[in-house]
Amino acid sequence: MIKPELSIVIPFLNEERVLPLLRERLEKIQNRPSKWELLFVSDGSTDSSPRFIEAWASEDPTVKLIVLTRNFGHQSAVSAGLSFASGDCVGIMDADLQDEPEVLLEMYRMLIKEKVDVVYGVRASRRETKLKRLFYFVFYRLYVYLADSPVQADSGDFCVMSGRAVRVLLSLPEKLRFVRGLRAWIGLPSKPFPISRPARAAGSPQYSLPKLTKLAFSGFTSFSIRPLRVGFVCGALLCLGAVIGALIYLIIALFTSIHIAAPGFSTLVIVLLFSNGLIFLYLGILGEYLGQMFLEVKGRPSFIVERTINIQGVKRTDEHH
Questions:
Q1: Angle between helices 74-84 and 209-223 (to 10 degrees)
Q2: From CA 108, how far away is CA 97, in angstroms rounded?
Q3: Are residues 115 and 183 in the same domain?
Q4: Which of 128, 179, 211, 303 could make an S-S bridge to 132, C-beta 3.0–4.6 Å?
Q5: Is position 321 within any domain?
C-alpha cells in the first residue's frame, strides 16, 4: 500500500447540503499532492451525508469514511480521523467550506518549505453573527490569558501537521480532547497562517452557542488552573474589604462625633449578595474541574467506530478508540 503524502481529516454532522459542494471544490483543485487521502468522519450523522460519502468512496479509493456509533462531539471526531490518518502530513478542516481546501494546501506547502511541524490558521476576519463574533473574541482573549501553555488567539482546528506532531498528539492520554490546545501544548515548531474565514457554503451551523460554551469551558479547564485561584483572590479581597470597613467604623466611633443611626441595611444586603454570588461562582468553577476529572477517571474512549470504508490496516495509535 502506497503511503499518502497528505491525509485530510474532515469531520461532519448532517452536512448533506454542503458535501456535494465540497466534493466539487476538492475535485477541481490543481497542483494537489500526487498521493493524498480524504478521511471523512461521520459524527453520528442522521441524514443522507454518510451515504453520499459512501457513494463517492466507491468511485474514488482515496476517499475514506469513518462512521462513529453516535455523536461524540467535534473534537472526538477529529481525534478519530487523526488516529486513522496514514499520510506523512495530516490536515484538519471542517466540511462546511469555511475552512477552504485551497488554503489548506497552501498551509501544507508552507509546512514543507519551512520544515516545521504545525501550520495553523489564524482568523483575520470571519463572517458570523455579531453574537458569535463577540463570543469568539471574549473566549480567545480569556483563553490566551488563562492558558498555562502559549497559545495563539483566533486559531482553530484548521491546520496541517507533520506525522511526528500527530503521533505526539495522539500519545497524550486525555479522553476529553481539545485539539487546538493540545496542539499548542506539545510545543513543536509551528507557524501561523492568516486566513479570512468565509460564511458557510450551505446548511445550518452544527456548533450552537451551548456547544460552543461547553467547548470553551473544556478549553479553560483542560489547560489552566488559574480559574481555581479565583476563590483565593476574591476571598482575600473580601476579607481585606471587611477589615478596612471595620477600621473605618471604629475610627468614626472613637474619633468623631458622628453617630450612625441607620444600620446600613441596603449596604449589608448588597455585600451579602455579592459575596454569596462569588461563592457560587467559585463552586461552579470547582464543579467544572471535578466534572472533567470524573469523566477522565472513568477512562471511557473518546469515540467508538461503527464501520469504515476504504480503510485498511491499523490506526496510528490505539489510545482513543
A1: 70
A2: 17
A3: yes
A4: 128
A5: no
